[in-house]
Amino acid sequence: MVVLAQTNPNTLTPLVTPSARPTATRPSGKRRLKQSEKNQIVQLYNSGMSTRAVASQLQVSKTTVLGVLKHRGVEVRPRGRHDCI
How many other C-beta atoms are found inside a 10 Å radius of the C-beta of residue 41? Predict the structure, then answer.
């Protein structure tokens, strides 16, 4: 014979107690760039490095580099080698 626990269907029991405020955390791997890092991105790119090379050196994504350049108003060079015309 199985004995079931007695529960009162008229009472509400919270399954999870809500915290006062949810903690805001960034997904792993995301961080904000410091102003000095943004300045370095612009400086390296303007010195002739590719966006991929800048991203690799600073350990950020190529998309991040392009976003910083766009936000700073830097004109992005066309993709590939265009000096062989």
Answer: 26
Q: How far from 39 is each of 1, 4, 25, 74, CA to CA, in Å?
A: 74, 67, 26, 11
Annotate 26-80 with DSSP letters as a single string. PPTT--PPPHHHHHHHHHHHHTT--HHHHHHHHT--HHHHHHHHHHTTPPPPPSS
Query: What is the C-alpha to C-alpha distance for residues 12 and 44, in angstroms, rounded to an integer?
Result: 61
Whether this model's pTM surpasses 0.85: no
What are the pLDDT digits (tens) for 20-57?
666 666 566 678 999 999 999 999 999 999 999 999 99
